[in-house]
Amino acid sequence: MPSFSLPPINDNPEGGWGPSSSNLPDQFKFKDIPYAPYSKSDKLGRFADWNDSSDNRQAAIGLPTTQGARGGGPGGRRGDRNQAFGSGTASAFAYFHVEDESSFSLVDNKATAPRRGGGFNRGRGNVRGGAGWGTRGTARGARGGANTRGGVSQRGGGARRGWRDWEKNNRTRESSVVISPQWSMLEEIEFHRLNKLRLEVDEPEELDSYGRLFAYDKSYDRVTTKTEKPLQLVDRIKYNTTTSDDPVIQQLAGKGVANVYATDVILSVLMCAPRSVYPWDIVIVREGNNLFFDKRDGGPFDTVTVNENAADPPQDPTPPNPNNPTEKAAVPETPSINTATSLSLEATYINQNFGFQSVIENSPPPAVDFAHANPFYGPDETEPLASCGYRYRLFDLGITEDEEIKICVRTEVDAYSAGQGNPREGQGLVTIRALNEFDPRAQGAGGAPDWRSKLDSQRGAVVATEMKNNSCKLAKWTVQSVLAGADLMKIGYISRANPRDNTRHVILSTASMRPLDFAGQLNVSLANGWGIVRTVTDMCMKMPEGKYVLVKDPNKPVIRLYAVPMGTFTGEEEDEGTSEDEESGI
Question: Where is this region: RNA gate (predicted)?
Fold first, then answer.
């Protein structure tokens, strides 16, 4: 007959429920784990009761207990005034977060909108400077659409979003230049650091002047929306030669008149860098103790931006994925005329032709020749030259008297104003630019009003919108005028004859202002601009001889300085790569 033996029974001499800690068998692997005693009356049917707000649940997760949480006794639940057995020892199993939480930050610190009577207060009024609901009327739009001052518009308690607004901030721009793996990044400067720089610079010294100027046609100052003039296509030649290819700068560099050489177009981009949104790049070459700031052929310096600083600037379509045939087939054959690239080319065309058209080429008044002829116009050229004068000016960037840091800048003026002095002596010089309107209803218009209906009656609103949407472009034009020593800036307002046609334009008006006064309206600080130039100069002077590229990040307010091979952007790098491929048999 088989035998039966009882298993060992461990009695608890301490009188509790369950085995004693001293009698715990070794075969169980719980010897070093603390044990929480419990009472027979404890409810063990639920692993976690989230609806229970009693102190038992708080103690079980390691939170401090408060007696009478709901008006009851020590247990916290009404009718349960007896403290559960063993509840004080449950904290042995509690989880404590010991990691550093200093890296966490509160994203939204706005006050939560309180509920009143089960719904929002439907009174009439405005919220002044906050997102919370006021006592007398809160937002006008618990019923739909809100009007807030200093806060976000609210509809039903939430922000009103437009069509595909979630996608607008996710669009990324490409860099103006491809960053090669062979480049090494040397410095990185954020825009908020550039805004703190200051350097006061005295009046410059004029080294020489070249070119011929025609008189500005003052009849364009009297143009209105009712007497608009068509923009004409004028065939003229105007040069935009980079610094290193300028024969005059080469001669001045041979004489050692300065340490840094640049053009007003390149220098204005650097001085207004904190306002820029679109990417750009400047090529910097150090030869001996000299620095040359250059632009690339076909780079961003050859075109004019449109609504760069708008809240929702014009966008280029996302390039299709070549590996996805569906995306490739979905691309329209005719590109939009309101993309960023198309508008930039259109604005460049408008600026050039408005400058050519708004001068008087046939005397009177006669043309004015500077000390020398145009340095870029060759004897084989047959097309007529545009009105343009080049003034080579020397600015002293030294902080102390013993410091020799001077910059030679080639500046440009477009015309002269008859009867305001002698242009040869730098009097009555004019720079001519143009703002363009494409389609007020198109994406990227930046909320601009219709010029034909507002330009004559509400010019201030039009100007304020342009100063907001084109802050960087207007600042660069103003800095160029100040560097050139121009007395007047002429800015034309040019619109499409038909919003759907980007080939025909009309001149609606022309504004005239003094560069220094306009710089004050735009809040342009020349001292800050010179501080940026001096900082970049000192940064490059510390580097060895070679070629460098200063690149504006396409999506962040940051500029970076890269060291690049000497053959970069000259074609030599590509030739070397081709010869290496041929030798390797590729």
Answer: 300-314
Instruction: Output the CA–CA distances (angstroms, integers) from residue 347 to 251, 307, 449, 505, in the order listed.
Output: 34, 11, 18, 11
Is the model more confident about 253 or about 573? 253
Does residue 90 register a pLDDT over 70? no
Give me the residue spans of the domains in the chain. 29-93, 184-314+336-576
- Dist CA 345 CA 503 (whole Å): 11
At 328, which amino acid appears? K
Q: For residues 387 and 415, is the Cβ–Cβ distance under 8 A?
A: yes
What share of residues in the chain are helix, strand, coil (percent, to 5)? 25, 20, 55
Residue with the two structure tokens 């198109």:
442
The predicted structure's pLDDT at residue 484: 96
Asked if residues 565 and 182 have their Cβ atoms less than 8 Å apart, the reply is yes
Rounded Cα gap, residues 551 and 300, in angstroms: 12
Any residues with CB less than 8 A from the CB of 199 and at least 6 apart, and which? 397, 399, 527, 530, 531, 533, 534
* pLDDT on residue 17: 64
324-333, 359-368, 459-468: least confident range = 324-333
Cα 146 from Cα 91, distance rounded (Å): 50
- Element of type H or E holding 267: helix 264-271
Distances in Å between the Cα of 131 and the Cα atoms of 117, 126, 158, 360, 556 are 19, 10, 10, 58, 28
SS3 434: strand
**Residues with Cβ within 8 Å of residue 410, at least 6 apart in sequence:** 243, 246, 248, 249, 262, 263, 264, 390, 391, 392
Of 471, 236, 242, 443, residue with least CA distance to 349: 236
Residue 167 pLDDT exceeds 50 = no
Distance separating alpha carbons of residues 226 and 223, to the nearest angstrom = 8
Q: DSSP letter at 373?
A: -
- Give the residues across from 311 on adjacent strands: none
Alpha-carbon distance 18 to 89, whole Å? Answer: 15
Question: Which residues face 263 on adjacent strands?
Answer: 410
State residue 77's pLDDT score: 43
Measured torsion, CA atoms of residues 438, 441, 443, 445, in degrees rounded to the nearest 10: 50
Helix/strand/coil (H/E/C) assignment for every residue in 515-550: HHHHHHHCCCCHHHHHHHHHHHHHHHHCCCCEEEEE
Question: Are 478 and 519 in contact, with CB atoms under 8 Å apart?
Answer: yes
| SS3 category, 243 | coil
Q: In degrees to the nearest 10, what's the CA dihedral of 553, 556, 558, 563?
A: -30
Tokens of 528: 């800050």
DSSP label of 84: P
C-alpha to C-alpha distance for 414 and 412, rounded to whole angstroms: 7
pLDDT at 3: 75
Q: Give the dihedral of Cα atoms 477, 478, 483, 486; nearest 10 deg.
A: 100
- Quote the CA–CA distance of 550 and 554 in Å, as a whole number: 12
Q: Is the pLDDT of residue 445 over 80?
A: yes
Q: Which residues neighbour 540 within 8 Å (Cβ) at sequence distance 6 or greater?
A: 284, 286, 291, 548, 561
Higher pLDDT, 149 or 261: 261
- How large is the average pLDDT for residues 216-245? 94
Prediction pTM value: 0.70
Determine how β-strand 488-498 pairs with β-strand 429-437: parallel
Chain centre distance of CA 252: 36
